Amino acid sequence: MYNFKKIHVVPKGQEFVDIVLTRTQRKTPTVIHPGYAIARIRKFYMRKVKFTQQTIHDKLSEILTDFPSLDDIHPFYADLMNVLYDRDHYKLALGQIHTARRLVDNVCKDYVRLLKFGDSLYRCKQLKRAGLGRMIKILKKNASSFTYLEEVRQHMARLPSIDPNTRTLLICGFPNVGKSSFLNKITRADVDVQPYAFTTKSLFVGHTDYRYLRWQVIDTPGILDHPLDERNVIEMQAITALAHLRATILYFIDISEQCGETIEQQVALFESIKPLFANKPVLIVMTKTDIIKPDDLKLEDQQRIQSIMKGDSIILLPMSTLTDEGVTDVKQAACEALLQHRTQIKLKGKHIHDVANRIHLAVPEKRDDIERPPIEVPPLPEDIEMRRVALERMKEWEHQQNLFINFDPDYKGIDFRERYDLIQPDWKFDKIPEIMDGKNVLDYFSGDVEERLNQLEREEIARLRRIALEKGDEEVIEGLTEEQMAKVQRIRQKRALMVLSSRSKKGSSDAILPTKLGTDPSKNLTTFQTHLESLGLDGKDVIERIRSRSKSRPRSESRPVGTSRSVSQSRAGRKRTRAELESRGFSVSRSSAHSFKDEKQRTLAERLAKRARKELNQDARKGESDRHVFDLKPKHLFSGKRKMGKTDRR
Which residues contact 496 (CB under 8 A, 6 or more apart)? Predict the structure, then answer.
């Protein structure tokens, strides 16, 4: 399967030159000065010459690789290209391209060798101009070959994709006998059909399916009955397909003679191209039977049609594409004939013996003359009963399915409750409620439900006891003695102190104590102060701090009565002292004077801090964490060619 649509576009003469020179200008350096070393100047111009040669070499090699070689492709495509494009002209054009590539390579070698001995910038530049000029001249001389190959490429891209090795039906005959109409009927192709000759001027391909296989159907242009040398390009396409494609030949005969040719002339054409049908299944299709039936033909015409079928396995079928009569029969007969023909060819080939040698048919030999009849094992009664039940259920299911398919009102489906295996058969159709006496029936489905309920009750009692232990002192737990209750009280107090200690560690350094501990009225600030003094601590300061936090600020201290608090008034208030800020929970910023022991140490620290910030200020960094990298070399100003105009911004 060849895909000529992938061939790249062939540029024409001047277009080819512009592509090469523009690419050289863009991809190679463009700035050179006489003050440079002579080795650098030579290398500069040698690079341009080599780059131009390599560009031309790649372009020409791509053309030679894309276009198919007539000696390497299928003979059908080789002869088709000979008919359409002239084999000699095609080979000559590719040969000129190959010669041009070799000449360009030689020119590059010569001028690179001369550039190695250039003694000045001017001499190297002139050698470069001469080398590029000779390469371009070679391309311009082959402009006609480029133009021809581009036309060939455009035409080849429009050729149908024909697989010479797949299953194929080939339609041929005189012009206007109904070939394109048959193709449109059996495939998804849409070929133009007109009531005049030579509507089809090239090969058209359609695809159809038969026996889950894909078939290609080829519609050929009409053929006239004259010598081969006098046939034109349109007719030679059909001759080429008949000669090279292994397919079923469908020769169409218009028995109504509306195509402009008599039956005698159509039979004569069949006899003239019959050598092309060798080793191929052939079907003769009598078309336009809606106008005249084969039995209504003249006796001479019937004898002529029967005469071409003598001695050969040729099938004769009638067909009318207008009424679709016989279209399917013709398609099936053609496909079956080709399948049988391909099978016979494979059986006659040499590969069948290789396959047969690998096949071994094992035939068992008789051991002795003793008769050994098969032993029949009687089935068990249980198996017989199960089989009987299964058959009854299958019959019932089939009966219900038939009722369902026929929309019978007696259809009721299969009640699977009949198959329940219960102790008493009367229980099968009992209705089981989901809720009974306010309880979920499924909750009592388990056998050990009583034991589980008792376990849940025990867990609930234990949970309630645990909650009771965690509650306040006033709650009395039933079932405990006074001594046990005293121990519970001590446990609760100990737990409260542990919670307060944990909160003080997680919070600020100042202890945050609630104004009310638990539900015991004896736990107040006075009791707490007494407890602290018993521990040897000054509890008075702690109590005053707690009371100052809980005490609300008087209205007179905040702002005068009848005035609204504005931003200016709030900022114009007096400055709070450190003690007040600490008591209200504000953070206090410490000045640098409180961080050093004397003025000398403070001055030294400030000087070191300025020195550390100096490097950051030089890089315009915001701080030590600033990692921004500035683009000091913008690419659009420091790369590429230097254009016309001012360059002082560089």
Answer: 517, 518
Distance, CA of 91 to CA of 94 (rounded, Å)? 5
Closest of 544, 542, 486, 492 to residue 517, by C-alpha:
492
Which pLDDT value is given to residue 474? 53
Among residues 235, 241, 240, 221, the alpha carbon closest in space to that of 179 is found at: 221
| Residue 353: band (very low, low, confident or very high) from pLDDT cuts 50, 70, 90 | confident
Total-model pTM: 0.54
| Cβ-contact 22, 69 below 8 angstroms | no
Handedness of CA 192, 197, 203, 205 (dihedral sign): positive
Q: How many residues does the chain have?
A: 650
Amino acid letter, residue 365: E
Pairing status of strand 282-287 against strand 315-318? parallel
* Torsion angle defined by CA atoms of residues 620, 624, 629 and 632, in that order, rounded to the nearest 10 degrees: 30
Percent of the chain with pLDDT over 70: 83
pLDDT per residue as tens digits for the range 497-508? 787 777 667 655
Choose among 67, 130, 64: nearest CA to 102.
64
Long-range Cβ contact pairs of 130-134 (< 8 A, separation 24 or more): 131/49, 131/52, 131/107, 132/21, 132/24, 132/48, 132/49, 132/52, 134/107
Give Dmax over CA atoms of the chain in angstroms: 146
- Average pLDDT for 153-170: 91
Q: Which residues of 423-452 are buried (b: 16+ CB within 10 A; e: fewer)?
A: eeeeeeeeeeeeeeeeeeeeeeeeeeeeee
The segment with the largest mean pLDDT, out of 236-250, 375-389, 509-523, is 236-250
Residues 6+ apart with CB under 8 A from 622: 616
Side-chain half-sphere exposure of 251, counting CA atoms within 13 A: 26
Q: Is 453 left (phi over 0), alpha (psi -120 to 50) or beta?
A: alpha
Q: Work out the angle at residue 54's Cα, subtended by the Cα atoms of residues 53 and 56, and round it to the nearest 5 degrees.
A: 65
Which two tokens mark 85?
Answer: 């494009």
Q: Residue 384: helix, strand or coil by DSSP?
A: helix
Q: Which of 374, 178, 208 is nearest to 290 (CA)?
A: 178
Amino acid (1-letter code) at residue 70: L
Q: Per the structure block, which two tokens stand in for 171? A: 């339609």
Phi, psi of 173 (to 5 degrees): 145, -175
Half-sphere exposure of 480 (CA within 13 A, CB side): 15
The answer to whether 191 and 184 have CB atoms below 8 angstroms apart is: yes
